Amino acid sequence: MAIRPQMVLFGDSITEQSFRPGGWGAALADSYSRKADIVVRGYGGYNTRWALFLLHQIFPLSGPTPPVAVTIFFGANDAVLLGRQSEKQHVPLNEYKDNLRKMISHLKEMSPNMVVVLIAPPPVDEDGREQYAKSLYGEKARKLPERTNEVTGTYARQCVELAEEMQIPCIDTWSVMQQTEGWQKSFLRDGLHLTEEGNGVVHSEVVRALNGAGLAAEEMQLDFPHHSAIDGAHPEIAFQSQGCSSSGDIDAFCPENASDHI
Amino acid sequence: MAIRPQMVLFGDSITEQSFRPGGWGAALADSYSRKADIVVRGYGGYNTRWALFLLHQIFPLSGPTPPVAVTIFFGANDAVLLGRQSEKQHVPLNEYKDNLRKMISHLKEMSPNMVVVLIAPPPVDEDGREQYAKSLYGEKARKLPERTNEVTGTYARQCVELAEEMQIPCIDTWSVMQQTEGWQKSFLRDGLHLTEEGNGVVHSEVVRALNGAGLAAEEMQLDFPHHSAIDGAHPEIAFQSQGCSSSGDIDAFCPENASDHI
């Protein structure tokens, strides 16, 4: 299955849920159809501290072909406030930045040419969070927000700074989304997770970042011939021209041999 | 990246497009979130004859861990009529069945325990095809349909028969869809390709087939601990219990070592 380059989406629930209807991960898989495999490694509720436990498992240094690109999308949980409902997810600002640096360094050690795209957390709609808590717990819902937009913004800034420092592409989701009036409800469905429109923003930004890093889908090779290039009477020609005679894998690829095998 | 089992979707455009909004492939990726990777190998316009050229490339006998499941979803192009616009895609009925048999045999040779799900082509809405052709070519559009529902039905029956013969699960999309009144427009967007509702039907049927074959997502292991199982003060405990001490891969997994490495 090692035919196509892989792009891995590493992150928290906003990555884990990216294959839900309208999700940015599924859209990316469609954008890179027959060009690259999009592999989702999203872990709902995780912060960067917990994600470090997975790093070597998901990205082993001695593994097979490393991915051509990885998105790192954490921060929404690191930015949870101390003393509030979800405080166990909190990671101090400096440690957050250090953890991200460790991830990037590890990935660059795995493959110096890997395109690593850092994605800052989206803004927080505190009213949306409150409504969501009430819809779940009614009047028992927590009175104090577990996240504020302002604090999440400080985490987003660390992302942006780190990306500049390490000279890698960065998507400042927190800032980009707030440029659109009504971002609170149009981009966030519960004050934190993305609506289809919000997913669209992330998808566009990721495509733009990958394009800028030399991984534009249009310039990547299609795996196997387009059907219009196949001659109905002599289909073998199109497949031979894909490297049958030179690949050394003649048994699998040449029609005259393939017919013996399949 | 070999942490999760893989499920491969092998087919024509109806598989290639399965990560578009509302697509059955993306929905499957979401259904198996953190349980299995859904790998799409769809090739628009391909029939089973052309697909055989790819078989050993996509599914090498000597490759790494084989997929746990593969869906084979061809027939919509094999069933194109001779003497019509797209006749180069036509594959005779008997050859179609033989080609599918070769695919299934190859996959079972690759891994006898692999769950192979055969998917019959969807029905054809001839009126929908004609409208679509007119929308593209106006009055120059072909007058005769390149596919008929009746002929596609004969291909679907070959699928069903072959699956019984080889004792593998089969989804008779052609019959299932026609049980719903108004299937022509509700399940097919151009008389051939799936609407979101049509994608929903395929998704449900694939999930049902996988459940029936012992691959229910609910019974598969989550990769890495759920966040609710992580102790904020001692996160290492949750990760150790995932096999740190027994995996032999201590460097990567144990926090005390991990901190040296990441």
TrEMBL record, chains A, B:
Assigned keywords, A-Z: Hydrolase
Highest taxon of the lineage: Eukaryota
GO MF annotations, alphabetized: hydrolase activity, acting on ester bonds
Signal peptide residues on this chain, from the entry's feature table: none
Keyword Magnesium: no
Family named by the database record: Belongs to the 'GDSL' lipolytic enzyme family.
Protein name: GDSL esterase/lipase
Source organism (scientific name): Carex littledalei
